[in-house]
From TrEMBL:
The lineage of its organism: Eukaryota, Metazoa, Ecdysozoa, Arthropoda, Hexapoda. It comes from Culex pipiens (House mosquito). It comes from the Eukaryota. This is Nuclear pore complex protein Nup214.
Amino acid sequence: TSQLTHTNVNVVFPRQFLLRRARRKSSNFAPKTASSRPKSVQFRFPAMATPAPTSLDVTDLKFKLQNKVPVFAGDGTVRDGCCLLAAASVHGLVFVGTTGPQLRVLQLSSITPDKVIDEVVPLRTVALPSEPVQLAVSCDHGLLAVDVVVGGVPFVYVYSVPSFLTPTVGKLYEIRTSPEGGVRSTQILWNPVIHNMFSLRTENG
């Protein structure tokens, strides 16, 4: 038969260890004092914005006539709430809608200060399926959206702006804007950051 024997093992700790342990126990039961509480830490961040300068009212603004460019006959009727002017300054182009099924394009260099007022300005005419109501250029000045009607169905045509400087104008997309016929858009808004995204508001909401 086997016999179990119990052996006592005495562990001797160094005196410094015992003193340290005794202090730790006493500190756990001692009341917290202001010195023993954790100190709060404050972070200082740099100012994110600087104060705006003092406002100044300017009442002597003057607008100088740059040039006058006839784009369509004066007997046409323009719809209310339309937007028939858009500019792509990156490519030096201005787009103007007309009261007919046309889009007029002119170069900014043709109406710069060194030109004579009332001088004949060359215009490029682009045929459309109907009169435009809304024109809008994307944030990178690379795309032009035009609201038109094709066979009674509302569309937005998206053109490549650089193609207006070439012999052939490039139409990239034809987007139907409403399942109902004859509904025109009241506003085209391109995303200010994403160049190939826009929102559209129509007459019927």
